[in-house]
Each structure stands twice: as structure tokens, then as C-alpha cells.
Specification:
Blueprint: E1 2-13, E2 16-28, E3 33-38, H1 44-51, E4 59-64, E5 67-68, H2 74-81, E6 84-88, H3 99-110, H4 115-128, H5 144-156, E7 162-166, H6 174-191, E8 194-199, H7 202-208, E9 211-216, E10 219-225, H8 226-231, H9 236-245, H10 250-259, E11 263-270, H11 278-286, E12 289-300, E13 303-313, H12 317-326, E14 330-333
Parallel strand pairs: 3-8, 3-9, 6-7, 7-8
Antiparallel strand pairs: 1-2, 1-4, 4-5, 9-10, 11-13, 11-14, 12-13
Helix pairs in contact: 3-4, 3-5, 4-5, 5-6, 11-12
The structure holds adenosine-5'-triphosphate (ATP).
């Protein structure tokens, strides 16, 4: 478990302390995939770099598995850093070393593993990230997705319990992003690793994270399970991220709303209710006529969800809303 207790960070700029993270308290549970989403400069990297002490905090305490890491000595820090792996947007591989040697590098650096242990671990990791046949290639001979797989294998070399991912898929195309996110999800499930993942894309959060913190100007402005934050965003910054991820043009949407008659409702279906043929029966029972203004069905991690915006005319609207709510469908009145 990672606990932030009133943690803050300021950078010295021109002799002045400029805050990058205002006092923040939060808990990241062991074994979860925790997303941190925010625009450029929001403080995401700063927050994550405090977890492995790449940056020292300037106030508060960070407890990892009940140990305060903020006062670790150099020796304690060296041992601690083996427990925290990290992957980066631009992979940060050593270009003069082969794939196998890149993966072996942190183990060699640690100086506590035998040559046999290192060889066996590298073989195991090459298989884990499906790169056995690329072991002797150099980074320049690999695709972006393969490079990030090497980055992941290298980060796992010393068997960390926490994996930090700093915009790990931002340099990858959508298909490669999907396969890297799947790999991270598998690693989380199979190894029970805690993953903290920074991104500026809500879609990445939706696919792989259990909980998410939304950051804006050095503060966490919203935090919770991804399904709550994604389906019912409260803060304007979160709403912007959700709209962006759905590729919704808000002006176009408003125009559509203006053309539509009657009441406009936004329905959110989650889990099993996503597949129920509810609209027809509600329309029959309540006598309400409806037209669909927009809709989508997708997944939040493994849970299906659907969102429909309807305009409803005539009939008994109250009865229709009751029927939706009885079927566990969240109803938001747009107009
Ligand atoms: N080493 C530094 N010295 C001075 N200011 C810094 C330093 N690192 C970050 N900052 C400032 O702290 C703030 C937060 O930066 P940070 O990199 O944590 O944001 P971010 O959300 O990760 O942004 P990005 O997505 O662009 O990486 C920014 O205003 C940035 O300019």
C-alpha cells in the first residue's frame, strides 16, 4: 500500500519555491492499477517520481507498506528502488546493449545476483513479454511496441512490487497501445503487482485502471473507482477528459439537442443491464416515444457499459424514469 500523507513538492526556480504538488493525501492499494490523469504540467510526473524518490518531497510523509520512505538513507534507498520498477514514454533503453543485456542491466547493477540467476531471469522475462526471438537484437532494430516490452521486462527484472508507468503508451499507435495495456493488465493480475500509471488519455485509464486520480494545477481534483469517475465525472477537468476520450464535439451535440423535441435524458447502463432490451418495454408501458440522439457501448476494464442520450415525447415520463431506475439504469436529465 502506498500512502500519501499531506505530501507536497516545490521546485526551486530562480531562488523561489514554485509548488508543483500542493499538500495531497491519498492511498493506492496493493495490487491495484491506479491511473493518474491530467493535462501537461498538472503535476503527474512529479507525484509519481516522489514514489520512487527520484524526486525528494518538500513536505509530508510517503508510506510504502507502512515504511516512511521520505527519510531513507542512501543504502536503504538502493534496496528500496529494486522494489519499484519504472517504464517511460521514450523507453530509455541503452542503445549499445542487446535486448537481453538491457533486461539484465538492473540485476547486474544491483550486484546481488549470480550470472545463472540473471540468465534464467532474463529468459523468463523474454518469454513473459513475447520477445524470445529478439533477445540478441539492438533497440534500433525494434518497433516501438517491442521497445516498450523490453522496458517492461527490464522494469520487472529485480521482481519489484510496484511498477510506475510514465506515459508508457503515449508514443505508440492505437493497436500497439492496446497490446501494451493488455500486457500490463496481465502482469498486474498474474504477479499481483501494484501499477501506478500516468496518462493524459482517459481511454487508457478506462481500459486498464481500477481507480483513478484526476490532477489539475498540482492538485488531485477528483478520485475514485474508474467506473464512477468515468461515467459520472464531477469536476470540469474530468468532464473535459471524458468528452475528449469519447470524441464528442460539444457544439455539435448542443445543436442536436436544440433540434430535438421533449425531454432529453442521458441513460447509463452498466454490467448486465447493458444488454437488456429495456427501451422497447419502457416505451410500451409508459407510452413515451423516444428517438436516440447519441449512444455508445464499450468496456471499463472488463465491465461493459452503455450510454444513450434520448429525446422523449408524450406518455408518462415519470413512469418511464421509474422503470429505468428500477432496472439499475442511471438517469440524468439533460434538458
Ligand atoms: N525539475 C523541475 N524544476 C522546476 N520546475 C519543474 C521541474 N519539474 C517539473 N517542474 C514544473 O512542475 C509542474 C508539474 O510538472 P510535471 O512534469 O510533474 O507535470 P506533468 O503533469 O507530468 O506534465 P507532462 O504531462 O507535461 O509531463 C510544471 O509546472 C513543471 O514546469
Amino acid at each position: 500500500m502506498i500512502v500519501f500523507d499531506q505530501v507536497q513538492k516545490s521546485y526551486q526556480v530562480g531562488g523561489e519555491a514554485v509548488p508543483a504538488l500542493h499538500p495531497t493525501s491519498m492511498t493506492i492499494e496493493t495490487g491495484e492499477v491506479f491511473g493518474i490523469v491530467g493535462h501537461s504540467g498538472a503535476g503527474k510526473s512529479t507525484l509519481v517520481r516522489l514514489i520512487n524518490r527520484l524526486e525528494p518531497s518538500t513536505g509530508g510523509r510517503i508510506l510504502i507498506d507502512d515504511e516512511d520512505i521520505t527519510h531513507y538513507s542512501h543504502a536503504e534507498l538502493r534496496a528500496f528502488r529494486r522494489k519499484v520498477g519504472m517504464i517511460f514514454q521514450h523507453f530509455n533503453l541503452l542503445s549499445s546493449k542487446t535486448v537481453a543485456d538491457n533486461i539484465a542491466f538492473p540485476m547486474k547493477l544491483a550486484g546481488i545476483y549470480s550470472a545463472t540467476q540473471i540468465r534464467e531471469r532474463v529468459d523468463e522475462l523474454l518469454a513473459r513479454v513475447s520477445l524470445v526471438d529478439q533477445a540478441n537484437k539492438y533497440p534500433s532494430q525494434l518497433s516501438g511496441g517491442q521497445k516498450q516490452r523490453v522496458g517492461i521486462a527490464r522494469a520487472l527484472a529485480c521482481r519489484p512490487t510496484i511498477l510506475l508507468c510514465d506515459e508508457a503508451t503515449s508514443a505508440l499507435d492505437p493497436q500497439t497501445t492496446q497490446s501494451v495495456l493488455k500486457l500490463l493488465g496481465d502482469i498486474n493480475r498474474e504477479l499481483g503487482l501494484t501499477i501506478v500509471l500516468i496518462t493524459h488519455e482517459m481511454d487508457v485509464v478506462r481500459r486498464v485502471c481500477d481507480r483513478v486520480a484526476v490532477m489539475d494545477a498540482g492538485r488531485v481534483v477528483e478520485m475514485g473507482p474508474v467506473s464512477d469517475v468515468f461515467l459520472h465525472p464531477q469536476h470540469p477537468t474530468t468532464r473535459d477528459f471524458v468528452f475528449e476520450s469519447e470524441s464528442v464535439d460539444r457544439d455539435e451535440l448542443q445543436e442536436d439537442y436544440q433540434k430535438a423535441e421533449g425531454r432529453i435524458l442521458r441513460l447509463t447502463f452498466k454490467g448486465e443491464s447493458t444488454y437488456q432490451p429495456l427501451l422497447g418495454s419502457v416505451a410500451r408501458e409508459s407510452g413515451v416515444d423516444f428517438s436516440i440522439l447519441s449512444g455508445r457501448i464499450d468496456h471499463i476494464k472488463d465491465t461493459p457499459y452503455g450510454q444513450l442520450t434520448l429525446s422523449l415525447v408524450g406518455g408518462d415520463l415519470g413512469l418511464a424514469m421509474q422503470a429505468f431506475e428500477k432496472a439499475d439504469v442511471h438517469v440524468e436529465v439533460v434538458r
